[in-house]
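Quick sanity check, Ribbon-helix-helix protein CopG domain-containing protein:
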Amino acid sequence: MRNIINISLPEDMARKVEREVKKGKFASTSEYFRHLLRMKEFEEEMEKRREDFQNGKGIKLRNVKDLFR
C-alpha cells in the first residue's frame, strides 16, 4: 500500500531534486526521496552495527549478504 506525502521545499532544494531527476539519476521525484530514505536506514543500521562491534557484540560475516540479515 502506498501513501501520498506532500512536502514543501525551499526553491534551491526543489531545483536540486529536479536536476537529479532530469539527469536520469532517478526515475521520478518520489524515487529520489525513496533513495534518501533507504540511505538513511542503511546509515542507521551501520551505526547500530558499529556500536555493537565496539561493545563486543560483533557478528562474523561469511559474505557481504550477511550485512543485510
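Posting the structure with no commentary besides this: Residues 29-54 form the longest helix (26 residues).
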